[in-house]
Amino acid sequence: MLTIQQLKLPVSHTENELEKKIIKTLKIKKEELLSWSIRKQSLDARKKPDLFFVYTIDAEVKKESTVLKRVDHKIVMSTKRVPYTYLHTDNRDRLQRPVVVGSGPAGLFCAYYLARAGLSPLVIERGDDVDSRMKKVQSFWDGKALDTESNVQFGEGGAGTFSDGKLNTLVKDPAGRNLEVLRLFVECGAPDEILYVQKPHLGTDLLVTIVKNLRKKIEALGGEIRFRSALTGIHTEKGQLTGIEINHREQLSVSTLVLAVGHSARDTFSLLEKSGFSMQAKAFAVGLRIEHPQTLINQYQYGCREHETLGAAAYKLTHKAAGGRGVYSFCMCPGGYVVNASSEEGMLAVNGMSYQDRASKNANSAMIVTVTPDDYGNTGPLSGVEFQRGLERAAWRLGGGRIPLQLFGDFKENRKSTGLGQVTPCLKGDWSFANLRELLPAGISSALQEGITYFDRMIPGFSRDDAILTGVESRTSSPVRIERNAEMESSIRGVYPCGEGAGYAGGITSAAMDGLKIGEVIVKKVINFC
């Protein structure tokens, strides 16, 4: 196979024009090109409004060695993709089936791997199946009671189901897990383009379908998924897992347990601490959501207010504040919504969400500031959890149970907002005016003000007085790391911490990749044992 790099064409190009460019670059005739596919597509917007796609292409040709002799070796080279492979064992009848706690990306991909290996895993999920969960969440946004077991954080698909559905990751991937995750998403209903676009995304509406299809695959392979089934007890003997308790009443003998619990499983973290697991508080970030007109972001990125081909534009911003804290955008949602993402009574958290079409009139992003265990006010592995809870209680009180909202101009003046400007909020859930300075520690508020003001240098209008702030953004990543050794086991043998909640991932793709990794480790252990 030949790989061509740095093929550039205007974003309005046709497939035929791309093929002609491939043929010209390889210096071959059309009939010599056997097949081609896009490995990567990125946007070059340096000369806006003239915008270009830049491609990396894989091509199969007749007489590859001959073609290689006459091409520019700076952009054309011979390559070979190593496919991701699954291990399998025929000894499942001699073993207890593994149990996976949580049906987010980490849990589902781990369960899929185990099911393909023939181990018939059981997945227990505290929340509802994704269809029932969607109804519960919408009911909550419409003003009905919060279901603390099935909400934006808990239920089939995990917290990522109610997000922008971004699939990019910075995790190094020599084993090919990233491409396998994307391939499986496509097999479950995602568009083919996620295999090659620079920053792929799915959107909440599409994720619902994908999650259901992945569940069906697991079940077809012999796995079982049980909803409204919370982990409430862990039994050990001499540092070895012997069993678990489900819903405070069912006892189950288990020798292999995967903890893919998600970053908001606070009661589970408490259970693990009481059960003797080695855990530690970790740094994360907190802050507020900010909303702007999507046309403002499009103008910055594309040089025009609307772009039919490219859709809603995204941004990524970072700044180091005078006090030394990092301020940065996180989970940016082009054409998205800010949502009430609460999961505990008397507490309120927000998150960002987009649908597949990214058609909302606003862009939103978290503006967050790094916090460390030094900020938490106490010590212990759950100190970050209590720090989060303190902020969320304050947010709930400040908004009277509704999302507290403030304009940036009023945030700068430390006063409660009383009206909107030209920007109107795109929110899921009721909201009320507030002074968000009363919510955040002074150092975080000042860093946010400095960062948002600084970002105006890059995106003119970013610090406009009527930009909308909402809070609190507190669930950026897990505040806890459940320690695991080189064999991926926790301090309790037979238990495998996995994914974002355990502190080993940061997003849908990296969590799914970690799920595959844990599946590999478990199956290798089974094969060696048998």
Can you give a write-up of this model?
With 530 residues, the protein is α/β, with parallel strands linked by helices. Helix content is 28%, strand content 25%. The protein has twelve helices and 24 strands. The strands form six sheets. The protein has a seven-stranded mixed β-sheet. The radius of gyration is 24 Å and the shape is globular. 47% of the residues are buried.
Identify the notable features of this structure and list them briefly.
530 residues, alpha/beta, seven-stranded mixed β-sheet, 28% helix
Short description:
By secondary structure, the chain is an alpha/beta fold.
Largest sheet: 7 strands, mixed
Distance between the termini: 39 Å
Strands across the major sheet, in which order? 14-15-18-13-22-19-21
CA-based shape: globular
The value of Rg in angstroms is: 24 Å
Q: DSSP strand (E) fraction?
A: 25-35%
Average pLDDT metric: 95
Based on helices, strands and strand pairing, what is the structural class?
Answer: alpha/beta
Bin the helical content: 25-40%
List the uncertain runs: none
Number of strands: 24
Please work out how many helical segments DSSP would assign: 12
Q: What does the secondary structure layout of this molecule look like, with pairings?
A:
Blueprint: E1 2-10, H1 15-26, E2 33-47, E3 50-61, H2 64-70, E4 76-78, E5 99-101, H3 105-116, E6 122-124, H4 130-141, H5 177-187, H6 204-220, E7 224-226, E8 231-237, E9 240-246, E10 250-253, E11 257-259, H7 266-274, E12 279-281, E13 284-293, H8 294-302, E14 318-320, E15 326-333, E16 337-340, E17 350-353, E18 362-371, H9 383-398, E19 403-407, H10 408-413, E20 427-428, E21 431-433, H11 442-455, E22 468-473, E23 480-482, E24 495-497, H12 508-529
